[in-house]
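Open question from group meeting: does this chain pack into something compact, or does most of it stay loose? Before anyone orders reagents, we agreed to write out a predicted structure and look at it together. Recording both the input and the output here so the notebook holds the full record.
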Amino acid sequence: MGLANGVHHLAVCTADIKKQIEFFSDVLGMELVALYWMHGVQGAWHGFLRLNDHSSVAFVQTPDVAKIERTIGSTHSGSPAMPVAGGAMQHVAFNVDSLAELLALRDRIRSRGITIFGPLDHGFCQSIYFAGPEDLCLEISTSARGIDARAWIDPEVVALAGISPDELARYKRPAAFESRNGGVAQPAFDPSKPWQRGYPEAMYRHLIETPDEEVTRRMSETTPPVKVD
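Structure tokens returned:
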């Protein structure tokens, strides 16, 4: 209870939301399920393409995105083997349930004129690799079984990463936490810990110091853009 159990949506910035929707709907067969003015963000559009009832790929377009230069090795990796700035998405892999479905999707992608390579067998999954608009680095994967940590946590890499035996044990078995039904108080702002630095600091402090109920009341928007009978 109280643990994340999947990706609800992956949000990607775009300077051309129509091009991304065209690619993900035509090349990958994802259904467009939402396209509207992004809540609380002036001038932004938000689009969602369905993976399943609980998971989507989302795109955000604002007028400023087109002014930001894409740079391979900095803002974008350009391949599943290349670096990118810390905290940025290096690549994303979407799931299919079998090798047959992987090959079927490879056929669909190639039929749209998109080059793709694989599958590569990584032991715990098999993957195919290709690119999307605006230098997105994409992968489709399938796993016949889950990852066995005993076989896939390399002691050499553990040591190079500076992870002690006690830390490794903790990472493999995170501490349990008993839910307090949303009752844990907001901690004091500490700029040495992660915070959303796209906000001015004063604005962010005000936001996190506002009671949760007020944030929910003031910032929520539940009305769809189109009335459905």
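Observations to bring back to the group:
The CA atoms of residues 21 and 221 lie 24 Å apart.
The first strand starts at residue 9 and ends at 13.
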